[in-house]
Design brief:
39% of the residues lie in helices and 16% in strands. It is α/β, with parallel strands linked by helices. The chain has a 7-stranded parallel beta sheet with strand order 3-2-4-1-5-6-7, with helices on both faces.
Length: 232
């Protein structure tokens, strides 16, 4: 299954949610190693990549025809197909190949979680057009909420079903507010409070989504369950 993690506004936590959801979908052993990798997280933000990078070919290289998608995947607790950081790489990348790239990765690994770029440009719409379904991420902030509504409409136009909604940094959110987001967007809402380990998870080998002892692990397991249900 190809799942787009989108939201419209930058800085709401899309990359963090995508990374931890990838960990939850994969499952990790007690030593932090992946147990039969089932998911790969693809950083599809060609201009402002956020996911862990490392050495080797990246999505810029793959979309420019300089590398094979499978050789660009970095393996670990969370397997990632990273994106380059250079403007030259972004210019050389041809988004017309994105569909073939993620489907190659899907055939090899099973689930592909696509971390979408912010905004409403064509590069944000391409992953939604390719994906089987999407997960939307927003904060309670009114500006973020307005952007996520526009992204929801774009997903509808592209026939990309909605699996779930994550309300991030939802420290003082009432159940009534969560219900309002559910009605507004048309999918169940999972609230994530501000959490230091979650905020730093892109810098760690073993993120909360892969740690069954972390207080938020059950919420990522619930999101992974929603993805499993959508797959069926």
């Amino acid at each position: 299954m190809i799942l787009a993690v989108a939201g419209g506004k930058g800085g709401v936590g899309k990359s963090t949610v995508a990374y931890n959801l990838g960990a939850a979908l994969t499952g990790a052993g007690p030593d932090g190693s992946a147990e039969g990798t089932r998911a790969v997280v693809v950083d599809a933000d060609l201009g402002m990549a956020n996911l862990p990078f490392g050495r080797g070919p990246d999505l810029h290289d793959v979309l420019a025809g300089r590398a094979c998608p499978l050789e660009a995947v970095r393996h670990g607790t969370v397997s990632v197909l990273p994106c380059g950081r250079s403007l030259a790489g972004a210019r050389a990348a041809d988004l017309r190949h994105f569909d073939d790239v993620v489907r190659n990765v899907e055939r090899e690994y099973g689930d592909v979680v696509v971390d979408c770029p912010a905004g409403m440009r064509s590069d944000a719409g391409v992953p939604l057009a390719v994906a089987d379904a999407c997960l939307l991420v927003t904060t309670p902030d009114p500006f973020a909420a307005a952007d996520v509504v526009r992204t929801r409409e774009l997903a509808r136009e592209l026939d990309c079903g909605l699996v779930s909604v994550v309300l991030n940094r939802a420290d003082d959110v009432s159940s009534r507010t969560a219900e309002t987001f559910e009605r507004l967007l048309g999918a169940p809402v999972t609230c994530l409070p501000t959490d230091g380990a979650l905020a730093r998870s892109l810098e760690t080998v073993h993120p909360p989504g892969a740690d069954a002892t972390h207080p938020l692990a059950d919420r990522f397991e619930r999101l992974a369950g929603a993805v499993d249900a959508a797959r069926r």
